[in-house]
From TrEMBL:
Gene3D superfamilies with a match to the protein in the record: Periplasmic binding protein-like II
UniProt organism field: Azospirillum doebereinerae
Domain SsuA/THI5-like: 61-272
Protein name, per record: ABC transporter substrate-binding protein
SUPFAM superfamilies, per the entry: Periplasmic binding protein-like II (SSF53850)
PROSITE patterns: TAT
InterPro entries linked: SsuA/THI5 (IPR015168), TAT_signal (IPR006311)
């Protein structure tokens, strides 16, 4: 990216302009050579940052907005994308070891690996929404309470959708580990599993879940914005701890730029969709806009707020046996989050 010029003529005082004119007049007498002191100062160098994210995730559209709308440059950053579609453990290792400086991902995908001690800190939440629990229209299941004894299709056993809807099931008195069968299918074939009657519900995230919903054969009976989770974060941004220690202003700049882009996307979902569409060429602008509008890109907790939400998730994960019952969730949240502006 090219840095905008930092030379702003409007910032010069009248005295400075008069002095400049006098020097210019003197230079003219010397053959038109203007001393270098009058040249515009060189633009400040932008700080390079490598940001890892899955470019296939439509909820990451604000990252593209931050680049194309100049929010990164505005905050002094030259951001390079690292398209990452590997496992969460690989992503966190890439951040911790300096292959990337920061990364974007789902909180419920990150928390268990972070418990293992990766040198990565969650710097901010970025939005809520994007996970959906779908059932066939003709299947008779219209409420999550009706999933006792049923099969739910998921993409993998560490799926954040499995974790989240296990939490909801537990709140409704259903043991998600013994009273529901979780069956793994490739993400894009989850709809086929339901069509064949092999599963009575599927739990997944956008854009795939949205496309299943749009097919008209499925209905949404819950999402990660249901009930008390309406104002709970889904995706987060984590940063390399050494970057946080060595260059906290760069981390602050990154967070400011990303949150500016989140707010822009919340108020202008169609523009955010247009910015992102090159990463989803088969999706219509209408579909991308609908998905972004259904997410809560205005919800991006930081500091004590993200720490509290992480602790709440960790406590809920204890109830479904993802975290050990002895885990001190307050200490865990303190360890894996950071107050960037504190």
């Amino acid at each position: 990216m090219t840095a905008p010029s930092l030379f702003d003529p409007s910032s010069l005082s009248r005295r400075s302009l008069l002095r400049a004119g006098a020097v210019a007049a003197s230079a003219a007498a010397l053959g038109g050579v203007i001393p270098s002191v009058l040249a515009a100062p060189a633009p400040a160098a932008l700080k390079p940052i490598r940001l890892a994210w899955n470019t296939g995730a439509v909820c990451g559209a604000p990252i593209v907005v931050a680049q194309k709308n100049g929010f990164f440059a505005k905050h002094g950053l030259d951001v390079e994308y690292v398209n990452f579609a590997g496992s969460t453990e690989q992503l966190l290792e890439a951040i911790a070891t300096g292959k990337a400086d920061a990364g974007h991902g789902m909180a419920l995908r990150w928390l268990k690996p972070l418990e293992q001690g990766f040198d990565v800190k969650i710097a901010t939440g970025v939005h809520g929404g994007c996970m959906r629990l779908l059932t066939p229209k003709a299947g008779g299941v219209t409420d999550i309470k009706q999933l006792r004894g049923k099969v739910v299709g998921i993409s993998d056993l560490a799926s954040p959708a499995k974790h989240f809807f296990s939490i909801l099931l537990a709140k409704d008195g259903i043991d998600p580990n013994t009273e529901v069968e979780w069956r793994v299918y490739p993400g894009d074939l989850l709809g086929v599993a339901v069509d064949k009657g092999e599963a009575q519900a599927i739990a997944h995230w956008d854009p795939v879940a949205y496309q299943f919903l749009k097919s008209g054969n499925l209905v949404e009976i819950a999402s990660n914005l249901s009930g008390e989770y309406a104002n709970r974060v889904c995706c987060v941004v984590g940063v390399r701890n050494t970057l946080l220690r060595d260059d906290k202003p760069a981390v602050q700049a990154l967070v400011r730029a990303l949150l500016e882009a989140q707010d822009y996307s919340a108020h202008n979902p169609a523009e955010a969709a247009k910015a992102y569409q090159e990463y989803a060429p088969k999706a219509s602008l209408e579909d991308l806009t609908a998905q972004l509008s259904s997410h809560t890109h205005h919800h991006h907790p930081q500091g004590n707020d993200i720490r509290r939400e992480v602790a709440q998730y960790a406590e809920a994960l204890k109830s479904v046996k993802v975290f050990k019952p002895t885990t001190d969730t307050a200490k865990f949240a303190e360890r894996v989050t950071t107050d960037v502006f504190g």
